[in-house]
Amino acid sequence: MPKILFYIERDLHLPYLVPVMEELKKEPSVQAAFCAPGFIPSSGYKPGRGVPEDKLKQLREKAPAYEDPRDFSPDVTVVGDSCQFLLPEHPGPTVNVGHGLICKGTFYTERPHSRRDNLSSVICVPGPWHKKRLEKQVKIPIEVTGFIKTDQLVKNTPESRKDFSEYYGLHKDAANILYAPTFNSDLTSLPWILPQLESLADKNTNVLIKLHNMTPQNFFDSCRGLAQHPGIALLDDVDYPSMMHHSDMMISDVSSMFVEFMLLDKPVVLFRRPDLQMFNTFDCRDIEYQVRDAVDETGSPDGLLDMAKNKLENPHEKSSLRKKYRRALDYKRDGKSAKRAAKTVLETLDRASTPKSRSRKRFLVILDAEGSSTEQTEKSLLEIKNAGFEQKMDILVVGENRSEKEKDDSGLPFKTVCEKIKETTADFIILLQAGFCLPYKWAEHMSLHVSWEKEAGLIRALGQKEIADSTLNFFKFEDAGEMPPSTSAHLLRTVGIGSKGTGVCGPSACVLVPTPKVKEMLAGACPSTPAKLCGDLHRRIGSEQTITALDVYVHPGPDTKIPPPRY
Which is the CATH superfamily of the domain at 355-556? Predict the structure, then answer.
């Protein structure tokens, strides 16, 4: 029976993962389970992780829980974002079902931030616009499935407005304004707008406040104080369908909820902070800024109140623009987005049994076994295959120390190997020194750098522990020097995907070169060894077209005596 694991890095992923789990549980041939890291609440503006106990209890009623994903041994893992830090180093196929319509320049952008989505085997996106935005940086399959969170709005019939107002102690016949700010200290409108809310609420107008669960506690305390006012209420996450249906307009900043609300064809007013463009991932080309012609925007807290009242009186203004963006951002809107995402998971299951049939790139790996023992060579051959998940690979072994069990192409003279390179149809040639450990999907991730850097001629794996440690320190892993190399390699793959160093960055044990460049090199005399070929390629290609892949750390195994990196 196929096993599907739902990995829940944070509870904010639940609205996206749980509906897909419910759809897959309808399949009698599928076994579903979930796991989550230990719960750490958000602190200040630092994101927490895991799921609080009350929500875990609800999840355990839906599916069995596992502390360690390896205990379940899933055939496919489903994630709600590119958060894969605590998955095993070799997690197998993963499906990213996403978690938002926009995300402050971090997702759905043409900038390198989006490269981390390549960690998965396939990604589901809400609409065709998202797919278009990702295609420059994301080279895995991108499936347009619709926005899972809005399935609730399409399928669920909320309670009456009267019952909703009575539950929260609001004015029964008043209009409802929903205030939904983001949490980031550099982006939130809370310091400007909270002081205005009490003057906005009256017998004709209720104010509903929805805070992100990562909002600092002091703002929650302030909002609880405001909620003592008879026309103001502080809402919970579980009220999402009701708050969206029963609100007449929204006030926000850069929260993704403003786009979700806009797609209901309801008016939105945004507060624009004066320092917005200083935010480190601000990009006016991103979706959250391109859709602002369908909303009203101001940098004045006082002006915002007047603008909000005007929108209540004229809700149909800009309706045509809102409807235009709905088609681009939320595929079909038929309440079946989770069902389509579940179908993508099942298709990934089917492909996982024959992964080579869907690999789009082909690699010819030259395993340089000179100076390595037979045992090291055999381990390297196994490592190449296990860590090269989903990839089509041909392997030629060069060197005297080799196993007698290997096929005819093992232990070939390098001159013969050079002739085979001239005849190959592989897309890339890899020179790999035997005895070194490889991170998951190493060849694929090295080749991605050629896609991203059009001038790249030679991609080198990171081979120096000092550079690996300093790179992890840059990503805030300050105890990197204490980590075993395998952990460092896993973390670099997860947080550093797409990161590069220019030039040599010290010797390496693994290099990747597009096949045409190698064939061009071999048009003359054949070098005597792989190391000599690598040196010739370095000189011909030049340092300006040489890149070190900081996300692919190739390192010696524990207690393994092997020659130092020579490429």
Answer: Spore Coat Polysaccharide Biosynthesis Protein SpsA; Chain A (3.90.550.10)
